[in-house]
């Protein structure tokens, strides 16, 4: 390209670029910005600090209307005394306990199972075999574990007596008292206690 022509083209591009940059500055009228209006600080919001009533849970409302299941306190107290294991005593050797399958065996029934009876509060009457009462949760857990290993559906329940806390070791529950006959004989033989069938206290 002719050097003179190239210089003219470059010069024309430079002039166009300058026009693009300075045109708004020179020919466009600036827009007046609205002045900043300073307003006073709004008042501090008022907060209601009055105490709020504690919400009542649906469970609490239901518990007020639900009656607890019936409990035979006299029989339960007697069972606690008959099955008490003192702390000074050595733990019973439950390894000699016969498995529940061998104790109960397989018996053919000639009659239909007993239908559960409801108490005055509407709870089904079921029964447990109380086999021990101890004052140590660790000991209670150990006895339950040994019974479960032999196939007995055992569990422990915490209760307060006077100023102390104790634990009941029970087997069940079942709807028929006679279902514990064979189990009771075996447990009494090994634990050397007088186990007793009592009403199952359903936790609420």
Key terms:
35% helix, 4-stranded antiparallel sheet, Alpha-Beta Plaits, elongated, 204 residues, alpha+beta, 4 strands
Report on this model:
The chain is elongated and about 125 Å long. The chain starts with a helix and ends in a 5-residue tail after the last strand. With 204 residues, it is α+β, with helices and mostly antiparallel strands. It has six helices and four strands. Strands 2-3-1-4 form a four-stranded antiparallel beta sheet, with helices on both faces. The longest helix has 25 residues. The protein has a domain of 122 residues: Sporulation related repeat (Alpha-Beta Plaits, 2-Layer Sandwich), CATH 3.30.70.1070. Helix content is 35%, strand content 15%.
Strand content: 15-25%
What is the topology, as strand order, of the major beta sheet?
2-3-1-4
- In terms of quaternary structure, the protein is single chain
Distance between the termini: 102 Å
Write the CATH homologous superfamily of the domain at 68-106 and 117-199: Sporulation related repeat
Q: How many helix segments?
A: 6
**Mean pLDDT score, rounded?**
82
């Amino acid at each position: 390209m002719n050097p003179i022509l190239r210089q003219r083209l470059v010069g024309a591009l430079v002039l166009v670029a300058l026009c693009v940059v300075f045109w708004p500055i020179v020919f466009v009228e600036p827009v007046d910005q609205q002045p900043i209006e300073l307003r006073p600080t709004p008042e501090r919001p008022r907060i209601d600090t009055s105490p709020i009533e504690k919400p009542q849970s649906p469970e609490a409302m239901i518990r007020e209307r639900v009656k607890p299941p019936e409990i035979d306190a006299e029989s339960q107290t007697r069972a606690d005394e008959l099955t008490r294991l003192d702390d000074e005593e050595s733990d019973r050797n439950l390894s000699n306990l016969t498995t529940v399958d061998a104790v109960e065996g397989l018996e053919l029934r000639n009659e239909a199972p007993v239908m559960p009876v409801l108490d005055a509060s509407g709870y089904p009457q079921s029964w447990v075999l109380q086999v021990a009462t101890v004052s140590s949760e660790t000991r209670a857990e150990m006895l339950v574990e040994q019974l479960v290993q032999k196939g007995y559906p055992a569990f422990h329940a915490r209760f307060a007596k006077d100023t102390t806390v104790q634990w009941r070791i029970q087997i069940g529950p079942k709807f028929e008292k006679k279902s514990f006959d064979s189990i009771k004989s075996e447990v009494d033989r090994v634990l050397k206690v007088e186990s007793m069938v009592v009403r199952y206290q359903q936790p609420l």
